[in-house]
Amino acid sequence: MLAPERVTQLAIPSVSSPRALAAILPHVARANDAIPLEILANGSLLVGVVDPTNEALLNALRVASHREVTPVAFALSEILGRLAASYPAREAAAVGGADSPEALFLAAIREGVRTHASDVTFEHRGDEGGQIVMLIDGGAHVWRDIDEETLLSLVRTGLNKAGVPGAHDERVGHRGRLTLGLEGRTVTLRLTSTPTFDGHMMLSMRLIMPYEALPHLEEIGMQKKMLDRYLRVLSRANGLIVNSGPPGQGKTTFTFASLQAIWRPHKIFRTVECPVEMRVPFLSQNSVEDGDEGDWTYAKAIAHLLAIPSHGAFFGEMRDPYTVSQAVRFALSGRPLFATTHGNTAPQVLFRLLHEGASRMNLAEVLLASISQRLVPQLCTRCRVASPGAGALAWMRAAVSCPSLHDTLDRAEIYVANPNGCDACLGGYRGRAPIFELLVGTDGVKRAILTATSAAEIAASDPDYEPLWVDAARMVLTGKTSPEAAADLVTLP
Question: 329-358 b/e with 16+ CB inside 10 Å = b?
Answer without folding.
Answer: ebbeeeebbbbbbebbbbbbbbbbbeebeb
